[in-house]
Amino acid sequence: AHWLPPAATQQPALASGELPGAVAYGTARGLADLLVRVESGKVLRAETVREMKRSRRPPGARAPTLLADFDHFAGREWGLGVEVLAGCGAGGGASGWGHTATGGSFALLLGGPRPVAVAFLLNRTDGWKQGISNDVLKAVTEFADGK
Q: In the chain, how long is the greatest CA-to-CA distance?
């Protein structure tokens, strides 16, 4: 997560870009449990969960301009308050929903033969760039894919 001083919102680069996401605090286990509860209809109605997981990108929409710090989100799909992941597994397998962070943390519910909820909390700013988060996500999606 990033803290942005109020004056930063006045800068043209920020004003012309998009700033997805927010900040939350909790344990990885608690977050994974919340994902399972949402998916199973214990937090939201089933219809709301279905709509939440539906991409809101209009057909033929141009990719938005993002700040360099948020290049991780380029090309991502968004539902109602969640990131929608299609074929994030090796070979385009498991699909899911949740949130990924620019530094490499993620909280996702992945479908597949063995559905799994995962919360990976990383206290770094370069988890995706260094490959740490990619390696963990690959292992989890392979598990969800039944491999």
A: 49
Instruction: Please tell me what DSSP assigns to residue 66.
Output: B
The residues facing 78 across adjacent strands are 83
Q: Consecutive sets of 10 residues in the chain, 147 residues long: mean pLDDT of each?
A: 59 64 71 92 94 88 80 83 75 76 90 90 82 91 89
Q: What is the pTM of this model?
A: 0.73
Q: Residue 137: beta bridge partners?
A: none
For residues 121 and 28, the answer to whether their CB atoms sit within 8 Å is yes
Cβ atoms of residues 96 and 88 within 8 Å: yes
76 touches 88 (CB < 8 A): no
> How far is the C-alpha of 101 from the C-alpha of 88, rounded, in Å?
15
Q: Are 35 and 43 in contact (CB under 8 A)?
A: no
